[in-house]
Write a structure and sequence with these properties.
alpha/beta; Alpha-Beta Plaits; 2 domains; 37% helix; 13% strand; rod-shaped
Length: 216
């Protein structure tokens, strides 16, 4: 009997040899745990990679949207962060109008000048048109003034004459000319002219055409 056999045990329970039998560890459970951990890590890496790709492909859209918001805010507010005040337009009494008749109708310039005066405009010269325009204005009329009058006196006078064409020349003074054309019938009705003047004084903001952004 070997010295490794406990007392009282023999037969088939007898241990032979000089070493205890070695017990193998359960490697199957460890492999399962490692596989689960590896799966979790792989899923996490795939999710992180997906988020990075989304940021790459949508980063431009986010930048464009942010730029559009900034552009919208800039149109609504001035450098100080406050809405820009509308440009002050001259009152009718501050605008001196010369009325010229380019039609065959006698006395037309005088009648129109009298009505403009009633509506508050300052009337200057009243006469027939020069050879440059006489019998050559086929439309309602021409509003003529200096370049500085493009966004001031000319649009204000334009509220009184429907469909008149605005032009500028090299003059230096503030006076503007109303040259009556062959299609001229009468000045705009006073209530319509007053309404147009009110809209002109408080225009609605419009989107910048270069930005392509929608209205704010």
């Amino acid at each position: 009997m070997s010295m490794l056999t406990p007392p009282g045990m023999g037969g088939k329970y007898r241990i032979t040899g000089a070493k205890y039998p070695r017990m193998r560890r359960n490697r199957g459970r460890r492999r399962i745990v490692l596989a689960v951990v590896a799966s979790v890590v792989a899923v996490g890496l795939i999710g992180w990679g997906t988020l990075q790709l989304i940021d790459v492909f949508t980063g431009g859209d986010k930048a464009t949207a942010a730029s559009a918001r900034d552009d919208c805010a800039a149109r609504k507010t001035g450098p100080s962060g406050k809405p820009p005040a509308p440009k002050a337009l001259p009152e009718p009494g501050q605008i001196k109008v010369n009325v010229f008749n380019a039609t065959p109708r006698g006395g037309l310039a005088k009648d129109v000048a009298a009505e403009l005066k009633k509506r508050g405009f300052t009337v200057g010269k009243v006469d027939n048109a020069t050879k440059t325009y006489d019998k050559k204005v086929k439309g309602t009329g021409i509003l003529l003034g200096a370049k500085s009058a493009t966004d001031s006196a000319l649009p204000v006078l334009g509220t009184q004459v429907a469909d008149a064409e605005s032009r500028t020349d090299a003059r230096k003074g503030a006076e503007v000319d109303l040259i009556l054309g062959t299609k001229f019938k009468d000045l705009a009705k006073k209530k319509d002219a007053d309404k147009a003047l009110a809209v002109l004084a408080k225009p609605k903001p419009t989107p910048s055409p270069s930005s392509g952004a929608k209205d704010c």
